[in-house]
Write a structure and sequence with these properties.
Shape: globular
Number of strands: 8
Low-confidence stretches: none
Number of domains: 1
Strand content: 5-15%
Number of helices: 11
CATH architecture: Alpha-Beta Barrel
Mean pLDDT: 92
């Protein structure tokens, strides 16, 4: 098992005006994050448009990600999102051939999986690739949120199932999930992380804090009082994001591209159609509403 990182971050996909993959901008992003924030990067989570790409785009992006990660000293992870288990397995196999050994799983979401389907899904992925490590992204978009009951069964069946990503800040949910530590490593976004770090060794699934890399590191390295103070400012940032969106866009990737762009002017905001994209005006409203000291990150 690899050393558990303190911070896990996403790299999002830049698209040209013709909606072609911008390889140069993507590679630069990987280097920027690996150098300034964390070398532990993943693509194709909910923020990374893994749900939207064709197989041709998936292969081009993962190939570039592998090369960029090797050149930049990053530890890469690929998210696998599809309604089709065969598609997930085919993509997993192609990424394995490239050299990837760490993957993020999201449950197929056309309909909520029952326990039998859940066990089948993990057996087909974790069970078929014993030399890989797997994270599960526990989010409501998949129509089923897992609890310690399911995680206890799955962890016992699959030694290479090692971690969980989630964004909850509900104390009762966190208490239940964290009963699975240290067998499973949990990566939580800032609000849940601040609560969980009071009692458990967890990782930061960095989101809002990406606008200022130095402060993101301080958020992890600081004490509970420091994190509590930072959380108040981060909630102001959430309000700024929602105000900028004002119902015009709502996909996670739109927010994450705005966050990365705060310190990287010119990074494209567009998403693959049909999903609505943040405009230049939306981004300007967000930056104007940032609290003092909220950005930028240092490249």
């Amino acid at each position: 098992m690899i050393t558990a990182p303190a911070i896990l971050a996403t790299a999002v996909v830049p698209w040209t005006e013709r909606y072609e993959f911008d390889e140069a901008a993507f590679s630069c992003q990987v280097r920027t994050i690996a150098r300034g924030l964390t070398p532990h990067l993943y693509i194709f989570g909910t923020a990374g448009e893994g749900y939207a790409v064709t197989d041709r785009q998936f292969d081009a992006i993962t190939t570039t990600f592998w090369r960029s990660a090797q050149a930049g000293g990053a530890s890469p992870m690929v998210g696998l999102i599809s309604l089709s288990l065969p598609v997930i397995l085919e993509r997993l196999a192609r990424c394995h051939a490239l050299g990837f050994r760490t993957f993020q799983l999201s449950l197929p979401s056309w309909g909520a999986l029952n326990d039998r389907g859940l066990d089948t899904f993990f057996a087909a992925t974790c069970g078929a690739f014993p030399d890989c490590e797997f994270h599960h992204y526990n989010l409501l978009r998949t129509k089923r949120l897992l609890t310690s009951v399911e995680y206890r069964r799955l962890a016992a069946a699959h030694p290479n199932f090692v971690a969980v990503k989630c964004s909850t800040e509900d104390p009762a949910v966190l208490s239940d999930l964290l009963s699975m530590t240290p067998r499973l490593r949990f990566y939580l976004t800032e609000f849940g992380y601040a609560l969980a770090r009071r009692t458990h060794d967890v990782g930061l699934l960095v989101s809002l804090a990406t606008v200022n890399y130095a402060r993101a590191h301080a958020f992890v390295a600081g004490d509970d009082a420091r994190r509590t103070a930072d959380v108040a400012e981060l909630r102001t940032m959430v309000a700024a994001l929602l105000t900028a969106a004002a119902g015009r866009f709502h996909i996670d990737g739109a927010y994450d591209k705005m966050l990365f762009r705060v310190a990287n002017p010119g990074f494209p905001l567009r998403l693959l159609p049909p999903y609505a994209t943040a405009t230049e005006e939306d981004f300007a409203r967000f930056v104007a509403a940032l609290p003092p000291g909220g950005g930028p990150a240092s490249p």
